[in-house]
Amino acid sequence: MTKLKNISKISKWFDGLNEPLIIAGPCSAESEEQVMQTAREIAASGKVKVFRSGIWKPRTRPGNFEGVGEEGLQWLQQVKKETGLLTAIEIANSEHADLAIKYDVDILWIGARTTSNPFSIQELADHLKGYDKPVMVKNPINPDVSLWVGALERFHKAGVNKLAAVHRGFYPFEPTTLRNIPKWEVAIELKSMCHDLPIICDPSHIAGNTEYIEEISQKALDLNMDGLMIETHYNPTVALSDMNQQLTPNELDTLLDELIFRRTTTKDEDFTSILETMRGKIDSIDQQMLELLSQRMNVVEEIGKYKSKNEVTILQLRRWEKIMSTRLKLGKSLGLTEDFIKKLLQLVHKESIQRQTEVMNKLTSSKKKY
Ligand code: PEP
Ligand code: MN
User: How far is the CA of 89 from the centre of ligand 2 (A)?
Assistant: First the structure.
């Protein structure tokens, strides 16, 4: 357990807030018109309470759109005045924090890159001491739950008790269907470390593409998360950042109508939600397992090509024996039975040989043609 005690519920942050909290808005504030039009369309449905917008954009490479800066904060004040939506922005250093306070931004969030750096987090925590601003901490780029909890603890120690975590997935070291690997089990682990901590899901950055946003949002709700942060732009086709993952306000409205919001108040529902939580872990692990198997087969094919070029046979007994003995040893040390590991390896090996045979046959028949 952590020292994260007396954390305020999201519904206590401001009057009129409820859970699950829906936050929507563009990846970046780009112009006054873009901000105002998007905010007006989002506010019209009445389902969204908080308008998000990046003012300073932490881009991986310099030269990409890096945000409009201070000017954008005036547009957010106008959003608040005109639509009544609360506002949320990302801050990464004390200058951002000062400006957020000066322009009275309602909610601050810490981006994934910043959470990864305890020096920056400490600087921000010291700076926000004494202000009653809600702070949402995105998970760090790597699936390191201690780094995530550590950042939350630094803010908490500085007296911030309107705290939430934002689950936005983790950097995939290999190409995957989604932009970020959700690794739901990490968010679940965080929840089991601090039961009172609200967790909001950011399906947009997990998905990287509008196609998967509904599925991820539903999963987050089924796991009992306390809110969703969904990137929304009045015209994503001209967005200056993350254009593939932003919904239009209309699409957002449809999505929110289609999602099933379950309440977990009765005992039975509690049971279902615990079961769902555990099943969430299994789903996430299975997805990673299949992705790893697919990566293994890709490497197997590469080896097939290489062997074919060098005219080497597919089956090399010594290698196979070594695989079997090392994996048996490892598997057993991980608590798996010998019988299970053997069957699994044989299955994987059979598929690998088949893949290599196909690759080699293809290469030989194309050689014959010339
Ligand atoms: C964002 O919310 O636009 C953003 C930059 O997110 P992250 O820190 O999760 O990459
Ligand atoms: Mn974004």
Answer: 11
CA of 345 to the centre of ligand 1 (A): 40
> Under CATH, to which class is 21-258 assigned?
alpha beta
Q: Which fold has domain 269-369?
A: Chorismate Mutase Domain, subunit A (1.20.59)
Which ranges of the chain have pLDDT less than 70?
Answer: 1-2, 263-272, 367-370
Q: Which atom of ligand 1 is nearest to the CA of 166?
A: 9
Per-residue pLDDT tens over the stretch 173-196: 888 899 999 999 999 999 989 989
pLDDT in tens, 7-57: 999 999 999 999 999 999 999 999 999 999 999 999 999 999 999 999 999
Domain with CATH 1.20.59.10 in the chain: 269-369
Secondary structure of the chain in HEC code, one letter for each residue: CCCCCCCCCHHHCCCCCCCCEEEEECCECCCHHHHHHHHHHHHHCCCCCEEECECCCCCCCCCCCCCCCHHHHHHHHHHHHHHCCEEEEECCCHHHHHHHHHCCCCEEEECHHHHCCHHHHHHHHHHHCCCCCCEEEECCCCCCHHHHHHHHHHHHHCCCCCEEEEECCECCCCCCCCCCECCHHHHHHHHHHCCCCCEEECHHHHHCCHHHHHHHHHHHHHCCCCEEEEEECCCHHHCCCCHHHCECHHHHHHHHHHCCCCCCCCHHHHHHHHHHHHHHHHHHHHHHHHHHHHHHHHHHHHHHHHHHHCCCCCCCHHHHHHHHHHHHHHHHHCCCCHHHHHHHHHHHHHHHHHHHHHHHHHHHHHHHHC
